[in-house]
Amino acid sequence: MSVSPCHGASLRDAKARGHFFSCHSRNHTALHPDTPEDILYDEIVVSKQEIEDGLGASVDTFCYLYGAEYGLNPRADELVMQAGYRYLFSNFRLQKLQ
User: Fold this and answer.
1) Using an 8 Å Cβ cutoff, are 35 and 29 in contact?
2) What is the pTM (predicted TM-score) of this model?
3) 65-92: string of b/e by CB count within 10 Å (b at 16+)?
């Protein structure tokens, strides 16, 4: 699932009007400690690449599903860091990662 050129134009227009973008996974899959590595990569890393490609700008905030916080899933947290996210937003707070 990549961002279509038409959808990318809509993203860029919304950004130009001041909207904020973050990643919230690629397929809205819950990321549990036992989630396979390829699924974690797709939901965390590929989602970032696709949004950035469509947006034409970097996205530095990730939002775990169901308001999870940094530290609850160390494998997913490591991929969030490796992907270059700087912030993690949960239902409870915004956490600065880098």
Assistant:
1) yes
2) 0.82
3) eeebebeebeebbebbbebebebbbbee
Closest Cα partner for 70 from 92, 88, 48? 88
Separation of first and last alpha carbons in the chain: 28
For residue 48, the tally of other CB atoms under 10 A from its CB is 23
What does the pLDDT look like over 30-42, one tens digit per residue?
888 999 999 999 9
DSSP the chain: ----HHHHHHHHHHHHTT----B--SS-----TTS-HHHHHIIIIIHHHHHHHHHTS---EEE-GGG--TTS-HHHHHHHHHHT--EEE-SS-EEE--
Alpha carbon 92 to its chain centroid, in Å, reads 17
- In 8-35, which positions are buried (b, 16+ CB within 10 angstroms) versus exposed (e)? beebeeeeeeeeebebebbeeeebeeee
